[in-house]
Write a structure and sequence with these properties.
The protein is of the alpha+beta class and 215 residues long. It has four helices and 13 strands. It is 13% helix and 25% strand. A six-stranded mixed sheet has the order 5-9-8-7-3-10. A hairpin with a 5-residue loop joins strand 11 and strand 12. It is globular. The chain starts with 13 loop residues before the first strand and ends with a strand.
Length: 215
C-alpha cells in the first residue's frame, strides 16, 4: 500500500528566470531552477524526496519512477526528452534499483527484469543538481494515483496527455518540462522537447486543465 509522505516539499514548485534561452541545443546560463521535488498532495497524489546525500550514492536501494520515462539507447537525460514511439518505455511506479553514481550519471537497474540504464544530469537544461534531478524522476515510495479521475489514471499509466487533464495529472503522466523552456510551472504553457530539434507545447486554461497540445 502506498503511503503519502512529505519531506520538506513545496506544493507549488516554481522556476525563477534571469534570462531566457532558446532551446536545449543553444542554451543560455541565466535561468535558475527552484524545483526541489514534485508533490501533488492536492489531489492525493503524494510523493517523497529521494533523499540523496550530497557526494555519495543513494540512501535507498529501491526507487520508483514518478512518471513514464522513454529510454534512448538505455539512457534517459534530465532534460526529459519525450521521445515519440520509443521502443523502451518505463511506466510510472516501476521499481528500479540504484547501482552506482559517478559525477552526473546514475546507473539503475529495473527490478522487474534486470535491464540496466543510465540517468544523466544535464545541468544546462534543468539548472539543478544531479541529486535534485534524480529526485524529479525517481521516488523512494510508489506514487499514489488514487486522487486522479479514472480518465486521468488511464492517461497517466499510458504516459500520455489528453485535453482536460489537470496539471498534476500531466506531471504524473510525462513529468515536468525542462526549465530552459518553461520557467514557471504555474504558467499557461509548458514546452517539452521530443529530441534536440523537435518540440511541443501543452497549453492550460484558467482552471489549470489542458486545453491544447500544440505539436
Amino acid at each position: 500500500m502506498t503511503k503519502p509522505i512529505d519531506h520538506r516539499l513545496s506544493t507549488k514548485p516554481s522556476r525563477i528566470p534571469a534570462r531566457r534561452a532558446s532551446s536545449p541545443g543553444a542554451l543560455g546560463r541565466g535561468l535558475r531552477l527552484f524545483f526541489p521535488l514534485l508533490v501533488v498532495a492536492a489531489v492525493g497524489c503524494a510523493s517523497g524526496g529521494a533523499g540523496l546525500p550530497e557526494g555519495s550514492g543513494a540512501d535507498h536501494d529501491i526507487y520508483y519512477t514518478r512518471f513514464t520515462i522513454p529510454l534512448d539507447r538505455n539512457r534517459v537525460r534530465s532534460t526529459n526528452y519525450r521521445i515519440p514511439d520509443s521502443a523502451m518505455m518505463i511506466p510510472i511506479n516501476t521499481p528500479v534499483r540504484f547501482v552506482s553514481k559517478r559525477r552526473y550519471r546514475f546507473k539503475l537497474e529495473r527490478v522487474d527484469g534486470g535491464q540496466t540504464f543510465l540517468f544523466e544530469h544535464v545541468k544546462k537544461h534543468t539548472l539543478d543538481t544531479p541529486e535534485e534531478a534524480f529526485s524529479t524522476f525517481f521516488s523512494p515510495e510508489p506514487i499514489d494515483l488514487s486522487g486522479f479521475t479514472p480518465e486521468e489514471r488511464r492517461a497517466i499509466e499510458a504516459g500520455e496527455v489528453e485535453v482536460g487533464m489537470r496539471r498534476e495529472a500531466v506531471l504524473a503522466a510525462i513529468g515536468p518540462p525542462p526549465a530552459v523552456g518553461t520557467m514557471d510551472l504555474d504558467g499557461p504553457a509548458w514546452k517539452y522537447w521530443r529530441n534536440r530539434w523537435s518540440t511541443f507545447v501543452i497549453r492550460f486554461d484558467d482552471r489549470g486543465r489542458v486545453k491544447e497540445i500544440a505539436r
